[in-house]
Amino acid sequence: MTQTTIPGEAVSLAELQAVAGDGTKLRYALMEMASKIPDAIALGRGDPDLDTPAYVIEAAQAAVADGRADAPTPVAGLPALREAVARKLREQNGIPVDAAGVIITTGGQEGIFLIMQALLDPGDEILVPDPRYSSYDQAIEAAGGVMVNVATEPADNFDLLPSAVEAAISPKTKALLIVSPNNPTAGVVSEASLRGIAEVAQKHNLIVISDEIYERYIYEPSVQVSIASLPGMFERTITLNGCSKTYAMTGWRVGFLAAPPEFINVLAGVKSVLSGYVSPASQYAALAALTGPQDILAEYKDIYLRRRQLMMDGLAEMGFTYTEPQGAFFIYTNAASSGLSAFELSYLLLKEGHVLIFPGTAFGDKWQDWLRISLLQPEEEIIEAIRRMKAVVERRRK
Ligand SMILES: Cc1ncc(COP(=O)(O)O)c(C=O)c1O
Questions:
Q1: Where does the pLDDT of residue 12 fall: very low under 50, low under 70, confident under 90, or very high at 90 and above?
Q2: CATH code, domain carrying 375
Q3: Residue 77 near ligand 1, beta carbon < 6 Å
Q4: For 104-129, how does the pLDDT look when each residue is reduced to its tens digit (9 = 90+)?
Q5: CA diameter of the chain
Q6: Considering the domain boundaries, does residue 368 fall inside one?
Q7: Alpha helix (H) residue ranges in the chain
Q8: Which end of the chain has fewer CB within 10 Å, C or N?
Q9: Does 266 lie in the same domain as 178?
Q10: Last residue of a domain, one of 244, 276, 291
Q11: Both 126 and 235 in a single domain?
Q12: 193 within ligand 1 shell (Cβ under 6 A)
């Protein structure tokens, strides 16, 4: 393969380096660069490429056609949708919640922001596993909170250990964030760890935020346990989830939070000034998603599993190591054997190989050797991406 330069290169290496310390800016700069490369294969973002189920689209069309899409809903969401979410959480997750304990949000993203605004006072510390989805940083910062890292390690399959959580607690710690399955590591917090963390949270009076947005894509033998279902935990847990990942509905922007009703009322107060209610057409779509046939999720999962295997095989051939992804649709891989830092490697993979992959440093400073690869392209594209990646890596090793 001949070495190419990016036509009309949007972002130079120097510009990338300038934002390297800010995970979110770095991700966006790389995406900007990729957008100028016509044949780029994007294994960057975590938004499912699969089609939203047809019955979901039809429900939204019906709401548009008969005027419901233009009729306001309560800020906390359509009563029928809150009810459907509560039922799902009770039946699938064992969380003892009813509709009054649910708020519908503009994607999980708004949920993160609302939680931090409602929960954190300036100077409050919140424990966040490292590496992490960097959007949390901005939400915490905007609320005046202080993010404190809790290490997770490949040797533990990126489990979040109760001992590590407890060691990070200070008198200022107010809350703990759990993300399982995790972005970027694709690790799952084991049930034993969750039980230990629940004890720690109760002992130190911590609020727990449990981001479960990838929960439906979990690979055997890992299992999904919602911490809010454990004894004494619902009272102190805010569970975050949504439709973007489960139903391939990123663009519809529907997320939801579950918590004790008093806290939901506080969140609704913040949401009323921030954005009001979620687009009703999207809420009717989400209602159809949650109450309609669920068999399509098994099809989606099979697709992700096949892609995951392809990429794991490709990485092994490249000499990159990884812990087997237990959930979500990412692979977090150690690319140290390339001889380059992950930042340089990401740049070269894009510039020369036209493959967009985020460096681990977009998710935490210490991940200099790591890449997060998302599996949100058809198999042919993944095969082609692996071919290009190998060519770039082999050239560097010569
Ligand atoms: C861990 C995690 N939480 C929340 C979100 C927000 O998702 P959305 O706003 O699409 O619902 C994302 C998106 O990538 C994520 O990775």
A1: confident
A2: 3.90.1150.10
A3: no
A4: 999 999 999 999 999 999 999 999 99
A5: 64
A6: yes
A7: 13-18, 23-35, 54-65, 79-93, 107-119, 135-142, 162-167, 191-203, 261-274, 280-291, 295-318, 342-351, 379-397
A8: C
A9: yes
A10: 291
A11: yes
A12: no
Tell me: do 74 and 195 sit in the same domain.
yes
Q: 107: Cβ below 6 Å to ligand 1?
A: yes
**Over the stretch 24-34, which tens digit does the pLDDT of each residue have?**
888 899 999 99
Q: 9: CA distance to ligand 1 center in Å?
A: 29
The number of distinct structural domains making up the chain is: 2
> Within this chain, do residues 96 and 131 fall inside the same structural domain, yes or no?
yes
- Of 24-33, 195-204, 243-252, 319-328, where does mean pLDDT reach its minimum? 24-33
108 lines ligand 1 (CB under 6 A): yes
Residue 28 within a domain: yes
Q: In terms of Cα–Cα distance, which of 217, 216, 246 is closest to 325?
A: 217
**Residue 332: strand pairing partners:** 372
213 CA to centre of ligand 1 in angstroms = 7
Please give the span between the terminal C-alpha atoms of the chain, in angstroms, as a whole number. Answer: 14
The verdict on 280 and 305 lying in the same domain is no
Q: Confirm whether 8 is domain-assigned.
A: no
Model confidence, pTM: 0.95
Nearest atom of ligand 1 to the alpha carbon of 46: 14
Instruction: Indicate which residue's Cα is closest to atom 7 of ligand 1.
Output: 108
Q: What is the token pair recorded at 27?
A: 């991700």
Closest CA to 125 of 162, 174, 160, 81: 174
From residue 60, how far is each of 65, 67, 141, 297, 324 by CA, in Å? 9, 11, 36, 19, 38
Q: Are 146 and 261 found together in one domain?
A: yes
Distance of CA 313 from the midpoint of ligand 1 (Å): 27
Ligand 1 close to Cβ of residue 106 (< 6 A): no
Residues 304 and 190 in one domain: no
268/373 same-domain check = no
The domain boundary residue, chosen from 291, 309, 325: 291
Is 167 part of any domain? yes
Give me the pLDDT at residue 11, please. 66
Which atom of ligand 1 is nearest to 328's Cα?
16
CA distance 201 to 234: 12
What is the domain extent for residue 332?
A: 13-50+296-397
